[in-house]
């Protein structure tokens, strides 16, 4: 129990002396995660759409060549950035450009956004491709039947439905980015985890500062999960629906019943059936009398 009291005392001491630095670190983490996720989703949607453009053997050879080339390039991009750690991607992108004679990055912020965005785009490309494929092919055929081209079909029919299907994956990537931005310290980007490393270097209070980091990251991810679930429910609409049959016009459409004859779907009692038979016999006898 005494150790927990000491831990609480050390945490309070750290927050009292360094709370502005922790808050700035959280702010940098959130901004980087949001911006990189948005850009990554744009990259992923572009790659997913390009990767699903159909072509047929009867299409011009040039068209088939370029579509195959695009798919190969996207495949290489996805495999490279999904198959390597983000920390090494940051090293290659931030330090590799000057190493090969390129210009220096204008700021560490720009480099961090590019690294996280490209990494997110690689994961989103496959998510978008899967979301597009999951839509019933009949939707595409129906859109083509009414004269839509591929672009109109994607923007008006397929992507709105695919977006709802991949929304959980978008949220998952955002939460991952909140945590994975911690590796940006390797390019001197100061975010939440980088400030923790700075504090530890000053006072060697590693575990109390790590506890603050753990609680901070957990709070960020829990709040993000709550917001994303709320957004999913908003997109799904209301849970309760009134059946169309509740409309009186709908109930009456095509079910008009003759006052005496009824409809084939009526379940009449025996008395009512006998009454209808007598009415039909009387009507028939009166008709014969007139003749």
TrEMBL record:
Domain ABC transmembrane type-1: 26-228
UniProt-listed SUPFAM superfamilies: MetI-like (SSF161098)
GO terms, biological process: amino acid transport
Basic and acidic residues bias: start-end ranges: 267-277
NCBIfam families (alphabetical): HEQRo_perm_3TM (TIGR01726)
Family statement drawn from the similarity comment of this UniProt entry: Belongs to the binding-protein-dependent transport system permease family. HisMQ subfamily.
Protein name listed in UniProt: Amino acid ABC transporter permease
